[in-house]
Amino acid sequence: MWFKNLQIYRITNWNISPAELETALSKHTLRNCLSMEMQSRGWVSPKAEDEPFVHTLGQQMLIALGVEKKLLPISVINQFAKLRAAEIEEQQGYKPGRKQMKEIKELVTDELLPRAFALRRKTYAWIDPVQGWFVIDTSSAVKAEELIELLHKSIEGCSLALIKTKKSPASVMTEWLAGDEVPASFTIDRDCELCGTGDEKATVRYVRHSLDSVEIIKHVKEGKKATRLAMTWRDKISFTLNENMQLKRIVPLDFVKEQIDASDTDDVFDADFAIMAGELPSLLADLIVTLGGEEHIG
Questions:
Q1: Per DSSP, which regions of 24-116 are E strands?
Q2: Do 128 and 108 sit in the same domain of this protein?
Q3: Residues 235 and 221 in one domain
Q4: 297 falls within a domain
Q5: Tally of CA atoms within 13 A in the half-sphere of 139 that contains its CB
Q6: Which of 162, 143, 164 lies closest to 9, judged by CA?
Q7: Which residues are paired to 10 by β-bridges?
Q8: N or C: which end of the chain has fewer CB within 10 A?
Q9: Strand, helix or coil at 48?
Q10: What would the pLDDT profile of 247-284 be if each residue is shown by its tens digit?
Q11: Distance between CA 78 and CA 115 in Å, rounded?
């Protein structure tokens, strides 16, 4: 189960063991939405139902936030509200006004909500207390904050901070595209995005395109900055780095897949987690060095 996206945090305080974390999460588990609820949040097993809430591998931990959300499209609410408004118009002899329509929609929503279909999703977080990483598998800052909010509600003595580097990813990626030497641990692939700094924010995207062309250098000289760049780390893992220090589209390459295939365990989930937790700290360490080192919080 490789993470597809990395929202990266530095652990600034962590004083809880896996057993203590298990106990804490078990008090805030996901339950079904109540009849009048649109959404429910809580912890679920990252591996399978009835498994622990904290999946451990040595000192590495994996947890998962579960969210159940009811599907009640606004188009459905409007459709039923329109029918209800027509009935009321026939009874009172004139169309409902704006205030009355708002009340009708609220009433219709309350009536439909208990019958709405519910979907569930998981958001995973990998915890490495040894090297101080807390990484959430999402490209959405909102989903990341959703998980962290419940984590703080569930446990005390935990603090996290978004990773910051001394050099911005945008400036370093732009320098590479302008012709600066790329560190030996990384290679540039064939996708990037360049964004202008003016009011219009003119944007140029390249997909499966050579990135050492005169055309791209011209864009950089005109003042455009790289906001997204596809890269490969040590021929092991490909990913896209963006200007906000997020890693997206994580893909383990053949060398890593061979390690998974050669693993002693028949449990693919455990094999994936073991190798991911073994490789990602080195990738993150190399990336931070490349970006000038970590900007420590005072």
A1: 39-44, 55-57, 60-71
A2: no
A3: yes
A4: no
A5: 11
A6: 162
A7: 133, 161
A8: C
A9: coil
A10: 999 999 887 777 766 666 668 888 889 999 999 999 99
A11: 16
